[in-house]
Amino acid sequence: MDGIRSGNLRNGLLGLAAGVLLLRFLPQLPPASAVMALGVVGLVLVPFRSYPVGLFLLGFSWACVSAQWALDDRLDAALDGRTLWMQGQVVGLPEMRDGVVRFELAHAQSRRAALPKLLRVSWYGGPHVRAGETWRLAVNLKRPHGLVNPQAFDYEAWLLAQRVGAVGTVKSGQRLGEASGFSFWRDGLRERLVAYDPHGRAGVVAALVLGDGSGLSAADWRVLQNTGTVHLLVISGTHVSLVAGMLYGLIFWLARLGWWPRRVPWLPTACLAAFTGALAYSVMAGFDVPVQRASAMIGLVLLWRWRFRHLGVTLPLLMALSAVLLYEPLVVLQPGFWLSFGAVGLLILSFAGRLGAWPWWRTLGRAQWTMAVGLAPMLLALGLPISISSPLANLLAVPWVGLVAVPLSLASAVLLPVPWLGEATQWLAGGALAVLFQLLEWTAALAPAWLPSRLPFWAWLLVALGAVLILLPGGVPLRALGLLLLLPLWFTPTQRPAEGRAELWMFDVGQGLSMLILTQHHALLYDAGAKFGDFDIGERVVMPSLRALDVRTLDMLLLSHADNDHSGGAEAVFRGLPVAEVVSGDVPGLPGVLQAQPCDERQWQWDGVQFSTWRWADATDSNQASCVLMIEASGERMLLTGDIDAPAERALIDSGRDLRAQWLLAPHHGSRSSSSWALLKAVEPKAVLYSRGRHNAYGHPHPAVVSRYQAFDTRAYDSVKTGALRIDLGSFDEPQALREIPRFWREK
């Protein structure tokens, strides 16, 4: 009877979870009336034998309602780009990097308009901001908006999952109230932890104690990603489970050695102590969604261990999954959710059927092998890189972090008030982390993370099936077939343009430019986006997009000129891919490591596609010196102009070239000083491309320029509205805009 009831419970929980998980794949939310009707049907079905279907409908309805609430709480479109005075409280831990203070403002109020419940703002050159303080701020507000590319971090989905309704830039502000409460205590603890930093790793200690990753540099994150160890340095289920395990293990061994009072049952006490410790650690870490997820999982596992062990090991996983999804349905938009529950499910699959006890070293090795193979399909689906060195790195790092770094870091936080003992413990914790990072850097240098090309669904399905087969217990028939099913990772054929055709991509890089030109056997990148401190468009956007499009080498990296918004990301591309040749119109302004050659007037052909370059010899600044590129495929032409201005445009016209082209990249992002009448008459474009940032400080494209193109009846494609744009040059077809691919969280 218990088996029947537990089976029914599993089926119900599976239906409930599946209903909420479906939210992630919706192109748009259904109408409110449809959601309400589905919810009513679900309520009717639950009392009957169709309760899994009923719970599925209830879960789906709740997810849609919750998502709609978050969408409704976004900044009103009428306020987009406006500056308002407001008053609110700083929540979470503010982050300061490269002179920019970033923090979240909760329950902000303005006399002029209603505001979202949570804002994320940046203050360039701002003062020291503490958690818990109340501020009166003048903020230039913007609706959530992110870059959309073949492969890149989905900022809009992340903001919605955090329920951030607007972002903004602080123009001025005044502190109204001093900090107080628990957030203020956490902020103060962080300051005390990072004040003493003999090994340069105090920021990592703060990450392990408080879940604050702001002390890790971009280089640190790169090392962690390359070695598949991000989960070890940002508080997650691993750390919370460790604290719970230590407390549970302490009571277990006291009872086993006979040192525990017989009047007090050790098992419920151990479970209660473990959950209390895990919950306290979670609260200290800020109790963000990943930590909430871990706390729910641990609580249910401990409850299962205490009273319901006879119901099987999968039940607590399903209960934790359902609890997390019901509490915050939008968690399905976060990659960490899928990876954490996927990892637990894989471990259950790998260890549930084993016979006898394994030695610890074999268990640890098996766990890392399971994670490396089993999570690969999920990483592919999420567009995340696969770490080749992850099994080895985690084999070393997991015990080091779990048994050395985390205990020392927590001890240093507890012992801070003790003058010499607190500093000594911090020195040991920082030293342990410095050793860890040195090992990880060596490992990452030997085998950096690998981002395979984007696979078609059929190929991904084969890889996922292969991973499951490999992880099945030994002796299962056809298990070796799993290795063959992994072959699409390396041998899936890439679709390239036919002879005489070219595939062009205008990447969505904000205020800047990066365009990829692919022929049947060649690749050219025209500009590489900008770099702002640690945020490198070349590394974060251009390189992942090139990998997703299966670009493994560049025949030419053509940097129109040396301005940051065109060449700032070039070094990241140069490091990440073999580049046969770097060409630029402003060689002296570029880093010497690029070994750029000057842009000469030349013509060449790749796979039946014609290319030609031009540069104004009498240019007086970097913009005027931009290297201009003409591409022609099967009679269809595109003119890429960099940042040339009206005098450079006149020189280009006077060169006597045939400038007629169906496609024109608006010179200088649509600046008023460019796109002269003379150029438009010479080119006669049918379509114009604007590559720019939303609400950019320069006002690009200028209204006068827009009206000129409209006078020529030219279709406009704006990266802010289209995201990345794909053009099949030589087909004379309409382009494909990635932002037009429907996602319910994405602003059109």
Describe this structure in words.
With 748 residues, the chain is α/β, with parallel strands linked by helices. The protein has six domains: 2-72; 77-179, OB fold (Dihydrolipoamide Acetyltransferase, E2P) (Beta Barrel), CATH 2.40.50.140; 187-228 and 390-451; 242-386, no CATH class; 457-491, no CATH class; 502-739, Ribonuclease Z/Hydroxyacylglutathione hydrolase-like (Metallo-beta-lactamase, Chain A). 45% of the residues lie in helices and 16% in strands. It is built from 27 helices and 22 strands. Strands 13-12-11-8-7-6-21-22 form an eight-stranded mixed β-sheet, with no helix packed on it. Strands 14-15-16-17-18-19-20 form a seven-stranded mixed β-sheet. It comes from Phytopseudomonas seleniipraecipitans.
